[in-house]
């Protein structure tokens, strides 16, 4: 059979095309194989230890006291230095007391005098005083009797002078047997008698008043002081006792003592300086117990209860855990955030925890164990998150479920096929597939 030239060219072209396509296909397969077998350079991190849902907070003293003076005064002695341990009642500062002691003595003398006066008044008059009052009454009565006799004499003289003057007046008017001089002399005698009688009456009245006064004084001496007098004297005693108490308090306040056990962390006074009321002289802290102050988010505060036991770890004692107790959970959040103040009390009798240091607080028997991975290690595919594990230089895709920790890290929830100590790829690219060979840089 003869082949036409045109048909033979077409067959050759087809065969050439098939050969060419076959060659291209072989080349492509070779490139894919080379890609599958080539090591992909990657950067990896090693997963850390499992962490629980703990919090970090600052350690504060259980008690910090600013010791101040209640009064102003010159410092005569300072008995402690910074760093010294003090017990309740130890004398820290002594102020000068010379003037204060003198004021106290004066106040005490006033109380003694006032008490003596009150005691005498309550005891009433002595027998000698009553006898003297009785004698005064008798003397006044005798003087009154004398004045009454004088009144009677004056009355008689006045009546005689009156009769004489009247007789002379009648005779002078009716006859010339009585001269004008005789009448005037009779009038003068009348005036003298009248004046003497009136004076005797006044003296008698004064004597009667003296008798009344003497009798009243005797009655007071016999009856004693009135309740109102006793009350007034007792009030004066109480007032002076208050003055003594105030003076005594001033003397006591000049001795400044430690209000509780603790350690002096700051001293701000020197001998010879003036202490001023309300100005801190010392700062004393009690570190036998400390408090860790936390800020717990609103998503976690519901799980935190006062009285719950916790474990506390401090950076300066990394290998030791301290038992603590949640003693305060605030029902009100912080002003500028959605976190709630929480306080944990920790025993610190060994003095290993320091105020101002950062401590980690972990709930006991927590079920919230999680690994932490950077967000840059996640691969999102079909709505799921994956990380690339490195096992013997080979990539293994592992699905994970996560929750945010912060802007750069996430927690890996329990149940994911990840363990602490494994290596995962950071910033994986699309060339990495399950089973790919990796080159760790």
From TrEMBL:
The CusB-like beta-barrel domain sits at 292-365
Keywords on this record?
A: Coiled coil, Signal
Signal peptide span? 1-29
Query: Main subcellular localization, coarse class?
Result: other
Residue ranges of every copy of the YknX-like C-terminal permuted SH3-like domain listed in the record: 371-440
Q: Where in the cell is it found?
A: Cell envelope
Q: Which Pfam families match?
A: Beta-barrel_RND_2 (PF25954), BSH_RND (PF25917), YknX_C (PF25989)
Q: Which InterPro entries match?
A: Beta-barrel_RND_2, MdtA-like_BSH, RND_pump_MFP, UPF0194_transport, YknX-like_C
Limits of the Multidrug resistance protein MdtA-like barrel-sandwich hybrid domain: 64-286
Protein family membership? Belongs to the membrane fusion protein (MFP) (TC 8.A.1) family.
Record's protein name: Efflux RND transporter periplasmic adaptor subunit
Q: What is the lineage of its organism?
A: Bacteria, Bacillati, Bacillota, Bacilli, Bacillales
